[in-house]
Structure formats: C-alpha cells, structure tokens
Amino acid sequence: MNHQLAERIALTAALFFMATAASAQAVPQAPQPPKAQEAEAEAFESPPPLLMGDATQNLLAWQRSGEIASRTPRPIAGSVANRSYERYIKSFEHPIPEHLGSTVTKSKSGGGDSSSGGR
C-alpha cells in the first residue's frame, strides 16, 4: 500500500511540475512602444499585392527545394516506366491543334431549362 501511495504522490508531483513549467512558458510579452505597434499594424494591414504567377512560382520553388518531398521511396516498375515513355514519345506523332472543335450541339427547342433565356 505504501508503494502505491508513493507512486501516486510522485505522479501528482510530476504532473504539477509539468503544468507549472507549461504555464511559465506562456509568459506575456512586455508591452511594446507605440511606434513598434504601429509598424506591426501597418505590416498586417497592407500585405504586398500578389502578382500574376506569384503563387505558381512559389509552388515551383517549393517543389525544387525538396522541402516537402516524401521520404518514402516510390519506385516505378521497369515495364510501367517503359510503357509510359513509349506513350510520351508517341504523343509527338500528331501535331497539337490550334483550336479544338466541339461536338456539343445546341438544341433549337431550348431543352428543358426555361431559365436559360434565348442563348
């Protein structure tokens, strides 16, 4: 019985110590001078505008860095790699059309959608 009581006391003390240490880490920062607060407020109020292509450039840079690359190797079987490469090479046999034709036809009766107006 005394051994169990000692374990409970030790566990309680450890939990108390951990809770005290965790709360000590959440100490609020000292107040900042008004100029520093204004500069921070301005930084958050007007972020730099994103230009066309910025998101794509950032994603490509992230991909090049390898920072988010999987650590799990995923090899491709030789037969699958060969078929993929053959399909890639075959794609050059036909030119890419400048415009794609459409197989969708417009119905003169207006179909079943009366809200579409007279397109």
Question: What keyword list fits this structure?
Answer:
119 residues, mainly alpha
Question: What's the topology here?
Answer:
Elements (H helix, E strand, L loop, with lengths): L1 H24 L8 H12 L8 H12 L12 H13 L29
Q: Could you characterize the architecture of this molecule?
A:
With 119 residues, this protein is an all-alpha fold. The protein is built from four helices and no strands. It is extended and about 85 Å long. The mean pLDDT is 74.
Short summary:
The chain has helices at residues 2-25, 34-45, 54-65, 78-90. The protein is mainly α and 119 residues long.
Instruction: Please state the structural category.
Output: mainly alpha
Helix content: 40-55%
Overall residue-averaged pLDDT value = 74
Number of strands: 0
Largest sheet: none
Order of helices and strands: HHHH
Unreliable spans are none
